Amino acid sequence: MDILGVDIGGTGIKAALVDTQQGELTTERERILTPQPSTPEAVIAVIQELVKHFNYHGPVGVGYPGVILNGATMTAANLDQGWLNFPGAQAIGEATGCPVSLINDADAAGLAEMRFGAGRDKMGVVLILTLGTGIGSALFVDGRLVPNTELGHLHLPGQKKDAEFRASERARIEKNLTWPEWAANLDEYLHYVERLFSPSLFILGGGGAKKAHKFLPLLTVRAPVIPAALGNEAGIVGAAMAAES
Predict the structure, then answer these.
(1) What is the Cα–Cα distance from 48 to 42, expressed in whole angstroms?
(2) pLDDT of 148-175, one tens digit each?
(3) Residue 232 scores a pLDDT above 90
(4) Inter-CA distances, 48 with 56, 92, 95, Å
(5) How many CB atoms lie within 10 A of CB 23?
(6) Phi and psi of 136, rounded to 5°?
(7) Per-residue model confidence as pLDDT tens digits over 81-92
(8) SS (H, E, C) the chain
(9) Contact at 8 Å (CB) between 110 and 238?
(10) Which among 235, 243, 242 is positioned nearest to 7, based on CA atoms?
(11) Whether the Cβ atoms of residue 218 and residue 178 lie closer than 8 Å to each other
(12) C-alpha separations of 120 from 18, 65, 76, 117, 125 in Å
């Protein structure tokens, strides 16, 4: 059975039906702008609309941009603060009438990349970073996920703000940075993360990785850095995978 995957982002909420055995979307992706303010009620109303759009009645996997513990959303860096310590899985399930599995959005993208994409059969420490509205992270050790790492919120030495304010795709666009300028910020961040975790491979996904050829040659970290294979579909595929069981 195809499973509905939903990917909540700071700017858009995307969904599609997914063949979780092949890692492929079986419908066109539907995208609705993230409501502002992005309160739980407003976002859940969009998820209801997406479930209705697909006329869907089975399990739903939802990727959320923050820490998830026991189905609750514990952080809300790029969404309304009403999501703090909110019973997200329960509330979405009650609103849609579907059983809901809630997972960190970068972890969802990471699961998809490790099973079907650039991380397939890769062992050792693999760090997947999604460059978008913020920076999401998914850390794998010999193929096993270490959940909720949220490494985009690290503070680099001498910096007062989260790293994602300098190295995310949104930072590049809002600050009108050239590719070399942005690559320098990203490289600084990757070097810091590399010192902490000594990954054997970096995989970069999200909207910021769409033009990887413009900045990958400018990066100087020790570990290889490669673009994600599934693009913006990774979060939807991984969210559906989370609901598979």
Answers:
(1) 10
(2) 999 999 999 999 999 999 999 999 999 9
(3) no
(4) 10, 8, 7
(5) 22
(6) -95, 160
(7) 999 999 999 999
(8) CCEEEEEECCCEEEEEEEECCCCEECCCCEEEECCCCCCHHHHHHHHHHHHHHCCCCCCEEEEECCCEECCEECCCCCCCHHHCCECHHHHHHHHHCCCEEEEEHHHHHHHHHHHHCCCCCCCCEEEEEEECCCEEEEEEECCEEECCCCHHHCCCCCCCCCCHHHHCHHHHHHCCCCHHHHHHHHHHHHHHHHHHHCCCEEEEECHHHCCHHHCHHHCCCCCCEEECCCHHHHHHHHHHHHCCC
(9) yes
(10) 235
(11) no
(12) 18, 24, 30, 6, 13
**pTM, rounded to two decimals:** 0.95
Beta bridge partners of 140: 126, 145
> Longest Cα pair distance anywhere in the chain, in angstroms?
51
Encoded amino acid at 69, one letter: L
